[in-house]
From TrEMBL:
PROSITE patterns: SPOIVB (PS51494). Pfam families: Peptidase_S55. GO terms for molecular function: hydrolase activity. This is SpoIVB peptidase. Its EC number is 3.4.21.116. It is an enzyme of class 3 (hydrolase). InterPro entries: PDZ_sf, Peptidase_S1_PA, Peptidase_S55, SpoIVB. Residues 180-406 form the Peptidase S55 domain. It comes from Candidatus Caccopulliclostridium gallistercoris. The keyword Hydrolase applies. Keywords: Hydrolase.
Amino acid sequence: MRKFFVKFVGVMFAILFVVIALNVQVVSLYSLPDEAIVTYEDIEDINSQNIFGNFVSAGVTSENVSVGGEKQTKTKLSFKLFGIIPIKSVDVEITDSPKVYVGGIPLGFSLKTKGVIVVGENSVQTEDGSKITIKNKPIKSGDILYKINGTIIEDVDEIPVLLEGSSGERTILTIIRDDKEMEIEVIPELDVSADVYKLGLWVRDDASGVGTLTFVNSENNRFGALGHPITDYETGVEVPVLEGKIYKCSLIGITKGERGKPGELKCLFMQSDNYKGTVDTNCAYGVYGDAIKLDSLIDNNLSVDIGSRMCVRPGKAKLVSSISGVREEYDIEIIKASYQPKSSDKSMVIRVTDSRLLALTGGIVQGMSGSPILQDGKLVGAVTHVFLSDPTKGYGVYVDWMLENA
């Protein structure tokens, strides 16, 4: 009888262990990256808010290791079931969380490209008739024309000057495609109607867009916005930035989103000397630069800590926007949070639940990209995309990935 009881207790304990180990929150531990940057506040939140379940605790341990003959301290964040059974271990770098001012206002972006964007081909009027110089050459719409004979192109007007020096001889073009440089040879043709040498390309050296400010770092005034890149409207290519400026926008109208038909914020901004900051980066995770005139961009009373992706979980959250005319927090729900080992602008799935925002926009609309997402009073991410099938849902990017580029 005693043996039966011991065996019964053992079986029940094993079943209980399996049930707990298969709990959704516990299972999510296995998708954590092997390396991460966290703050002490993140670790406190994991334990105090039971982010990975009631039976999981997290603790930090350090050990001395030898790397290349040098001794270094390696810090690990270890997760244990019942405080005893190891489940997952993550190599971490523990940093102080910077305070950031929360954005939420629409911005206009004016960008000058690094090189020029090829948007199409054009014929050149030669003595023999019309000719397409780049025909059968490995250059296509969406390429970045970066150099001519080794000289960097800073604007469209420089191209005829650089080609003039070739005198119709062999010319080396450096182009960028998919972040890789490649060289091709062409022979420019003399356009008899303008008496200048041409390549037979349509190119563009600027771009503009509208999005939402996500944050301004209180320590160095670096800002992050949009959560995804500004792309060329014809080719869809990510715009390489030489320099740029940000401006405050005037919201002149809202088109509500519907199933299969995304809505949009209709904004207006004027390029002038009254810019609010400068842009130096346009990448997969947003637009970044230096804020200059803070008083018109942020609320000094609205600064928060950063929440790392390790602490983001399904549940209630807030979206910050000023589409009503004032900066407000709206209720949303984080439906899914992926613990991404690699950066992506689709880190989490969110749903708008606030009746006020639904009445204004129908959910998420174009122009809201970059809207800050807060959870537990911390900035954890930004809106990036809307679901075409359901405008109340969309994607968000973790603020971790944005800060890496800020």
